[in-house]
Amino acid sequence: MGFVIAVDGPAASGKGTIAQQLARAYGLPCLDSGLLYRAVGVTLQRAGGDLDDAAQAEAAARAFDAGALDDDALRTRAAGEAASRVAVHPGVRRALRDFQMRFAEQEPGAVIDGRDIGTVIAPGAPAKLFVTASPEVRAERRWLQLTAKGEAASYDDILADIRLRDARDSGRADSPLAAAIDAVLLDTTEMSISQAADAARRIIETARARWEKSLKG
Ligand code: CDP
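# cytidine-5'-diphosphate complex -> structure
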């Protein structure tokens, strides 16, 4: 495996921005794995399917087409909600696993952000971050993001969404959202996004030095 950076964490924790900045800094391709779940949810919804039906959701995930990831409709609040509902089905997670694992196997490495990258998709990744922030701070960031894109939503509704998504992503024994035992925890509650990105960069630099040393053996 090359230099794989796994960036996991709950909704709107800043993991996407951090992942993109790390990818730029190290010249690595970046995958936002949430987009895969968003694509499955949105495709199923457009076809009139039932997001809570495990068989329908799995069939949509098996038909997943990576070419669909550029669609702006995947970035809306409704798409996040649809993603969170299809992501609870184990068959959906299985169907999307290979694509993510192949992405992680690229040379010279990759950056992937999500929920279970450090635990399931790339447990051997030499660098793992688990990015968190309080639900209130995450709701504020998501509100700013959505309003900047022209999507009207109240702060209270977004906070309720975030709490519901946290519960869906971490409520069960097989829930995806869990920090890998060797992940470094980065709590960004009191940080601006640029401070968070700087802190992430320092953590990953340490991991990179350790990884390079291990390669020299
Ligand atoms: O930015 P935000 O966390 O709101 O959205 P996202 O990362 O695009 O994830 C949307 C939903 O997809 C999450 O609430 C999870 O339920 C699901 N997801 C997942 O289960 N596993 C991943 N690796 C990524 C996303």
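# post-check
Strands lie at 3-8, 30-32, 109-114, 127-132, 184-187.
Residues 34-105 form one domain.
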